């Protein structure tokens, strides 16, 4: 079978990574590298200059959105690089940025649990390689809902921090509860203020506004 293009595959689960590599090879793709973390993904792309990247979202070390953020950086460096993100969930903070990159061409975002036909999956990869865009409808729905739900912009950790703020905890207390540094908590709080579009003013006032946004959303 003639090659469908060279691929760098990124997936932290070794069984799934090997299974995907075998599947892609069977359908004519040349898997030039199969890696298990975002740093190795970026290094492999620099080394092999593949036609296509297929990457998981959650990878070491944090298992949050490392793969997606790496994909965004790769597209910023080379807008012609075809990228398909595979995930079990929608990471809204960077999904829109990935799908908006390079005019939305040669990019895809698919949910693992909703892939039920192998040939459809392979067809989606080829469609992206040919310049198309492939996005799971559930991803589209969640991104549209983001516009009406300000908390949808926050990461899982930021939501956790905001929930603790709503309970009246100070940054120092949150540091102890989450077993992280106070600088890390401060960064999360700053991200919360920015993503909720809260105006730059006294932090204590912004904490109140952030809590109000949180309470309005959970009361729906």
From TrEMBL:
Residues 6-127 form the Response regulatory domain. Signal peptide: none annotated. The modification 4-aspartylphosphate is found at residue 56. This is Response regulator transcription factor. The keyword Nucleotidyltransferase does not apply. SUPFAM superfamilies: CheY-like (SSF52172). Residues 147-218 form the HTH luxR-type domain. Keywords: DNA-binding, Phosphoprotein, Transcription, Transcription regulation. The keyword DNA-binding applies. Gene3D superfamilies: 3.40.50.2300, Winged helix-like DNA-binding domain superfamily/Winged helix DNA-binding domain (1.10.10.10).
């Amino acid at each position: 079978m003639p090659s469908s293009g060279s691929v760098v595959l990124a997936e932290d689960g070794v069984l799934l990574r090997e299974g995907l590599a075998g599947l892609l090879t069977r359908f004519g793709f040349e898997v030039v590298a199969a890696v298990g973390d975002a740093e190795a993904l970026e290094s492999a792309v620099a080394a092999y200059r593949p036609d296509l990247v297929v990457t998981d979202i959650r990878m070491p070390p944090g298992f949050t959105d490392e793969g997606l953020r790496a994909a965004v950086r790769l597209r910023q460096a080379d807008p012609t690089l075809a990228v398909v993100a595979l995930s079990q969930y929608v990471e809204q903070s960077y999904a829109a940025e990935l799908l908006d990159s390079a005019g939305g061409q040669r990019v895809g975002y698919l949910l693992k649990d909703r892939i039920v036909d192998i040939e459809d999956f392979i067809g989606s990869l080829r469609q992206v390689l040919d310049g198309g865009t492939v996005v799971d409808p559930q991803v589209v729905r969640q991104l549209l809902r983001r516009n009406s739900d300000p908390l949808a912009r926050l990461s899982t950790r930021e939501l956790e921090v905001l929930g603790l703020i709503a309970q009246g905890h100070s940054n120092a207390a949150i540091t102890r509860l989450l077993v992280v540094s106070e600088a890390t908590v401060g960064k999360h709080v700053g991200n919360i203020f920015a993503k909720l579009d809260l105006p730059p003013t006294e932090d204590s006032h912004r904490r109140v506004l952030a809590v109000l946004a949180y309470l309005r959303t959970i009361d729906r």
